[in-house]
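Sample entry (438 residues):
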Amino acid sequence: MVNDLLQRVQARQATVGIVGQGYVGLPLALVFNEAGFCVVGFDSDSAKVQALGRGESYIKHIGADRVAAAIKGGRFRATADFDELRQCDAILICVPTPLGRHREPDLSYVVNSTREVAARLRRGQLVVLESTTYPGTTDEEVKPILEASGLQTPGDFLLAFSPEREDPGNPRFHTRIIPKVVGGVNKESTDAAVALYSAAVDKVVPVSSARVAESAKLLENIFRSVNIALVNELKMTFDRMGIDVWEVIEAARTKPFGFTPFYPGPGLGGHCIPLDPFYLSWKAAEYGMWTRFIELAGEVNTHMPHYVVDKTVAALNEDGKAIRGARILVLGLSYKEDIDDDRESPSYEIIELLRERGAVVDYCDPFFPVARPGRRHNVQLKSIACDAEAFGAYDAVVLSTGHSTFKNPALYAKVPLVIDTRNAVRLPEGALGRLVKA
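Predicted structure, serialized as tokens:
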């Protein structure tokens, strides 16, 4: 069975099915297609399926030309018909893994997708989970669901975990050149998954088990979460001392060894760093462990929107204005600059906290003409125009996301107060207002 799959992979005759056509699944589908494979993209969202069928991209950093070329070539198509999973030799699951109301892992997307696969599972298929999750998910959750079909691994099918490593909007790194960690639930599964990914990406890193691969992804995100929390805490501390944390970081990064720069901000956003560390802390409790670094980092990072709002209130007070009734403009809904991804963005928290204080709040973001309802927030706003006249109508402008558009000094010529959370604003000469870093 393994040899037959390997031969099909090497000959580019294997059909690759990818469940989920979002920020992870779509670029992965295009990379396999561009490597010569027939690819079927599965998604329950009919709007996505229809857009892909027309050769359109709904993700800014993924060019429509790539999608159109893949569709036109006839070796990539999207569907909402999960019965077509039977035709796939390899099935890659790329679905969200959010947190529940009490910060517990929500594996419903993984479980439901796995059940869809199990209902169509046949001998000789390779299944790979890519969704970030706690160690043991592939063995303890995915494998039993698949084996409930009556098929067993490795005799009938193969099963592995390979964590996604996407960085939306980063022009230096894309799916094909980012090393791919792969770990199977058995050696045969690891070998098959390594062969599959090696045919489409530049470097594959095999590890001894799915648990190691799951843990590696969590370590990557916990490392970032903890270090971002550190600089966020230092930002607040240095601010009390009258020291610019940004200048401190620039000075420290001149050391050519033993230091990696991380930068403060208004809070964490994106689907990974704000959520994934808590998958490990939840699982660690099962083993009687309390992951204090993870919890403390989460506490610090979660507090940052409150810190930004407090700084805004204080700055308005210095100008003789109350927060109640103040007109405030928040710049950016994306969680990072120059992308159209607003998942878990701290901007929503800032907007709601300002509203709770009595402010009248608007936003500006060229990537979001209309604010989308999210998992926890629904601000029900439309973006204002991005120009100096519009900005000048507000008592304060809070820069939450450092889009390139917002780095134009001329935008702030008539703004009385700018709260900059990203060290991105430079006031033009002769500006009427003042700049406060937060």
